Amino acid sequence: MASQNGPRVVVIGSGFGGLGAARALLQRGITDVTILERADATGGVWRDNTYPGAACDVPSPLYSWSWALNPAWGRRYSQQPEILAYLRAAAEREGLTDLVVFDAAVTSCTWDDDAATWQVACADGSTYEADVVVSAMGQLSNPVVPDLPGLETFAGPAFHSAQWRHDVDLTGRRVAVIGTGASAIQFVPGIVDRVGAMTVFQRSAPYVVPKPDQEYRNHHHRAFDRWPGLLRGERRTVFWLSERLNAALGGQVPWSKPFLAAVKAAWRLHLRRQVRDETLRAQLVPDYDIGCKRILFSNDWYPALAREHVDVVTHAVGAVEPGGVRTDDGTLHEADVIIWGTGFAATGFLAGVAVTGVGDADLHERWADGAHAHLGLSVPGFPNFFTIYGPNTNLGGSSIIGMMEAQADYVAQVVARLAAIGPGRRVEVLPDVEAAYDAEMQRRLHDSAWSGCESWYVDGSRITTNWPGRVAEYQERTAVVDWDELVVR
């Protein structure tokens, strides 16, 4: 039975997605909300990623909640401590922190069809009964370390960038960095002056363009305080520019090719200006079309790689040995410390959580060939269950917070409808609606700039992570629930 305050809602995760979903529910009058957090503090990826140089690659006026604009940002591209402080302060002001149960790692969600409730179990043995479950675990919460021969034999410290060992002194040490993605381009410059020698193992080079960063000084803050429209104007400008990038990547506009060509030209000039050595410069040229991976922003990545005590290795890593890393050409690259910059299991949605729906349906079995969900939110056979930052909602550009806010309000509308019609009700998307939406996503993604991008595919056929259009389009499609797409009973 639902509580007197309406449906009991369990939200999994207390990052931007989970906290935003909880606020949207409160705004719609749903007050029985519990947030289950596996860690001992709020913050999601901004709590976990504390590596040197950790920062956002989206300007903070846009990478922030629309309901909590911040005139006091220290930089245009804020660093991890400031983003985490912002998130926690906003959550405190809205009373969201009081809803969080910490050290509650969810292990399973099981639907009870007779009671029309979810049984949510945690690793510590605690259980929660909920009328609605909202998973906000995200796509970037589970670090990946490749399963290499000899991994456990390495004699020194080895850790993932998302699990940074601040107790390991890198001063004068030989450091092996494996991976050249969004985290590595930040922490490599962050530690390059400290280490004795560094070897960067690159499987494929990223496209890195200049980062138009700046410090916000006192006169900026005074102006933002006095004229709030300035901050909103910067937010709208950044959104407009990022939407142009999203449209180009999605192949939605006739100028997609020239736009991407201009971005590529900016990358090429950036590389040429910052890397004088022709051999190194040739190593840093990507072997895929621009847009196949997220375009990265940095002013110090290339100069860091050009330092005399830094080597870039393009041979594949074959094994780890006690003394270092051996590549497939037979060379042993000696190292005292290994840092994995190898990203996250972005396609492993709800990894570690068993989700059982109607008729004992297993969500992970349903997703065996790649995850899919209507609007990235709901799957037939799993009533009253929603995923924030779910399948096909990631972005090639812009701020994911805009997508998550749209998802949160959509879910809150549905839950408010359940509250209005009484206890014991359930809602799920119609199978043909979800199938048609999934077919649309795959068709559009295969027609987009991502179509030739091997890295986006699951099993060589499906793209499960990215949204093919503009953020504004997604916001329009989720602004008002289309009840003809759902069945409520």
Summary of the model, kept short:
The chain is built from 13 helices and 23 strands. It is an alpha/beta fold and 489 residues long.
- Assign the CATH class of the largest domain: Alpha Beta
- How much of the sequence lies in strands comes to 15-25%
Question: Count of helices?
Answer: 13
Average pLDDT for all residues: 93
Query: What ranges have pLDDT less than 50 throughout 5 or more consecutive residues?
Result: none
CATH topology of the largest domain: FAD/NAD(P)-binding domain
* Proportion in helices: 25-40%
Shape: globular
**Strand segment count:** 23
Structural class: alpha/beta
CATH level-four homologous superfamily name of the largest domain:
FAD/NAD(P)-binding domain
Termini separation: 15 Å
Number of domains: 2
- Strand adjacency order, main sheet: 3-2-1-7-19
Q: Which CATH-level-2 architecture of the largest domain?
A: 3-Layer(bba) Sandwich
Biggest sheet architecture: 5 strands, parallel
Alpha-carbon Rg, integer: 23 Å
Structure description:
- By secondary structure, the protein is of the alpha/beta class.
- The chain folds into 2 domains: 278 residues, 3-Layer(bba) Sandwich (FAD/NAD(P)-binding domain), CATH 3.50.50.60; 165 residues, FAD/NAD(P)-binding domain (3-Layer(bba) Sandwich), CATH 3.50.50.
- The strands form 7 sheets. Strands 3-2-1-7-19 form a 5-stranded parallel β-sheet, covered by helices on one side. Strands 8-17-9-10-13 form a 5-stranded parallel β-sheet, with no helix packed on it. Strands 6-5-4-18 form a 4-stranded mixed β-sheet, with no helix packed on it.
- Strand 14 and strand 15 form a beta hairpin.
- Helix 1 packs parallel to helix 11, helix 6 crosses helix 7 and helix 11 runs parallel beside helix 13.
- The longest helix has 22 residues.
- The radius of gyration is 23 Å and the shape is globular.
- The model has no long low-confidence stretch (mean pLDDT 93).
